Amino acid sequence: MRARKPTIFVSAEQTGTGSAQNIAHGLGVVPRLVFVSITESPETYAALDVAEGTRTNTNVVVTVASGWKYKVIAIA
To answer: Are 57 and 47 in contact (CB under 8 A)?
Structure first.
């Protein structure tokens, strides 16, 4: 049996709002793993808070503190 090569999605840079955000991943299946990579802090520092929500075959839901910039990495 041959191992299946993982499919990886990396989002464009997003800006956290403090509310749940839907990020469309285009993988066609529910991702097995999801990472949130912080790319930039806000000019006026605010505490960082990241929470993963649900995963579906179309979207990943994440909540990131307002003003923080990030990318979502999803692996199927």
So the answer is: no
